[in-house]
Amino acid sequence: MKKRDVAQMIDHTLLKPEATAEDVVALVDEAKQLGTYSVCVSPSLVPVTDTGDVKVACVVGFPSGAHPTASKIAEAAAVAPHVDEIDMVINLGLAKGGDWAGVESDIRAVREAAPETVLKVIIESAALTDDEIIKACQASESAGADFVKTSTGFHPAGGASEHAVKLMRETVGDRLGVKASGGIRTPEAAASMISAGASRLGLSSSAVILEGFDD
């Protein structure tokens, strides 16, 4: 793939807790220079201004997902007027406990709180079994999500893997997008995620990775 095509698959990401408003300005400037699809930031850092053609994504229920649904609803409703996309974290405790109706209900509540916003559901794939990955993707689709996403990048179990991305793509087909995020730091890793079926990449090292692709 060409550099510009890969750039248009990237959510240029800044989710460090210590990130400042000045850091976001720098993030947006770099995103414009690189031609990335969007920037992804924390809720307290929106609205993001002067983005030009770069879209804005924001996380909800991040990074643990162990928030009451009411909190996720309030967070989504607060940021939705200012962003194009929301990346929410599922309730992993419900997933590991096999309460898939609860997982789906939690996702649907966020979907309903931000009905016009692209919704990506972070399933934290490294913490799930293959069967749980499949069920999490199915719950996300049933609840009205637009994407399923591998990871927050903060879980000790790890980030994205080719295996998880491939399984997620096989589960959702071409009906939903698949975002690979977490631990993708080289051009080779990015290329492998795309080959496995990722249609979006969450990257904080976007400039370094794009250097590995031809103009």
From TrEMBL:
GO terms for molecular function: deoxyribose-phosphate aldolase activity. Pfam families: DeoC. Pathway: Carbohydrate degradation; 2-deoxy-D-ribose 1-phosphate degradation; D-glyceraldehyde 3-phosphate and acetaldehyde from 2-deoxy-alpha-D-ribose 1-phosphate: step 2/2. SMART domains: DeoC. One of its GO terms (cellular component) is cytoplasm. It is an enzyme of class 4 (lyase). It catalyses: 2-deoxy-D-ribose 5-phosphate = D-glyceraldehyde 3-phosphate + acetaldehyde. Keywords: Cytoplasm, Lyase, Schiff base. Its EC number is 4.1.2.4. GO terms for biological process: 2-deoxyribose 1-phosphate catabolic process; carbohydrate catabolic process; deoxyribonucleotide catabolic process. The active site is at residues 87, 149, 179. It is found in: Cytoplasm. InterPro entries: Aldolase_TIM, DeoC, DeoC/FbaB/LacD_aldolase, DeoC_typeI. It comes from the Bacteria. Catalyzes a reversible aldol reaction between acetaldehyde and D-glyceraldehyde 3-phosphate to generate 2-deoxy-D-ribose 5-phosphate. PANTHER family: DEOXYRIBOSE-PHOSPHATE ALDOLASE. Belongs to the DeoC/FbaB aldolase family. DeoC type 1 subfamily. This is Deoxyribose-phosphate aldolase. It comes from Scrofimicrobium canadense.
